[in-house]
Amino acid sequence: MGTLWSLLEDSTLSFHVLQWWTRPHAFPPPPVAVRAATDETTRLRSVPYLPLISPSGLHGRLKVKTTEEQAEAKRLEREKKLHHYVTATKAIFEKRKMGQMDKEALELTSQILGANPDFATLWNFRREIFLHMEEEAPEEMQALCKAELSFLESCLRINPKSYGTWHHRCWVMEHTPEPDWARELELCNKFLESDERNFHCWDYRRFMVQRSQVPPQDELDFSDSLITRNFSNYSSWHYRSRLLPQLHPDPHQQGRITEEVLLKELELVQNAFFTDPNDQSAWFYHRWLLGRADPDPSIRCLYVNREDASLAVAFSHPMAVAPASHDLVVFGDESPLVVRWRTPDGRNKPGLMWLCDLPATSLNDHWPQHTFRVLWAEGQAQKECVLFKGHKDCWSQDSVTEEQVFRCELSVEKSTVLQSELESCKELQALEPENKWCLLTIILLMRALDPLVYERETLSYFKTLKAADPMRSAYLDDLRSKFLIENSILKMEYAEARVVDLSQRGLTILCHLEHLLLVTHMNLSDNFLHCLPPSLAMLRCLEVLEVNENQIQSLGGLPPLPHLEELSLCNNRIRRPSDLRPLASFPKLAHLNLRGNPVCQIPGVQSELAVLLPNVATILT
Known about the structure:
Structural class: alpha/beta
Number of strands: 14
Number of helices: 20
Strand order of the largest sheet: 9-10-11-12-13-14
Strand content: 5-15%
Helix content: 40-55%
Radius of gyration: 36 Å
Distance between the termini: 82 Å
């Protein structure tokens, strides 16, 4: 019986069933879905209450409309609404053109916006009308604004996430003579109770809190109540990250919180992700807690080379420098030098490194020493180095360890808490072996505690995470590469070396190259690199580069490396001699190894390469 009545709930099927039931020989068989119920309907003909749908049972009842009749009725209704919409819109634009900013125009725009709150032009017109009416008495203006807020509330019921409606409400509140902020706060509470992730409402709440000067502690309490009710409230976690730095600012890190509050928040968020390990909201907040303030821009390194009379400045952040900038000034023996700035890749866009050629008069081989100083006015920073007689270069570089470039120095208490969190997350991962958020957090905790001590274990967790989240394997490969390069930079600094070995690391990207300005030898063999990035030009001292056993197809876009003498590209995917054309601009390149590349199979390739790269003494194919 249930099958038949479920079919009758569909208007199309019910029409076919009624026709076929009353006169089975006069109508074609019903649709397949109805025929599937044939056996059951035959059996049910003897049921006493089925005459309700017999021919006699239809007398005195409304005729069931066919699909065609229903479609036609809907079409006519749509046309009627469209005609009214178009007519009203034309009238509105005509009034705006004539400058008729009156209450009739408000009424007309209300009709359209009540049906379509996302008509931005009409909201603009309403604001023009209100500005025109500002000369009215304050009491009348107050009444108009109150009515407008009521109208806006009705529009928000139609579309609670209308950009135009929320923006217009902000504007109206700013122009209301006596705004009722308490009522607005109550309105926000209602909308957030309906949809706690309505970011439009959250934005409006922040605007309203700022204007009405609601204490941050009250808003933090509000955030507490929402999180307690639902740990999955991402917006509330985010709001919390905005409030805590206001209430408990870290005096040493702008935008961060004191360690005492941080430790309490770590405990709170741990309860959240243990309650629902698969919800990402708490994990994201935990990642913010593990983060740190972005350090102020600074000069990381100053390098001067006597041979090519050049100077390089490496920054901590990408910087825009005009060619003849007065913000970045070079002094040679305390005299300002006239220089022109450029980036190593030649693009002259905001970058981490800027170069300039030194005037010939600034270098004298007979002087015992030259002092070069760079003054950066914007960052209020400077750095200097001394080039002694007989030396080909000099530099002044910050320590990545002392400056805490890759991680923060931990107090004993914080280190203990993070260690405890790491153990707890490992326990959770044992219960939820494929939880990607838990696996990623374990990796980040290890990085925060000691990236070198946990390097091998971190790589193991990366492998598990890739298996659990294959859709993001490329992102995870790049993140893993970033961490490995950071570790190598730390090891290189501890060893006070200018050689870096990044071979057999499974690297997919190259990053932090601004920290490798002084490196003379680099081994990138046996990785998964598809190209050599233009940023490689920041390695101003590089003399030997090994990139064997990768997946490089071309060197297109690679700027010249001024001191590179040897380049090994064995067993890559270079197919054409033209893919090597950028090497012709490398002034000191003398040895090139291409063995194992498809280009080596081309007849006469040795001669063609000799013409293409005339300055390269040895080309092995």
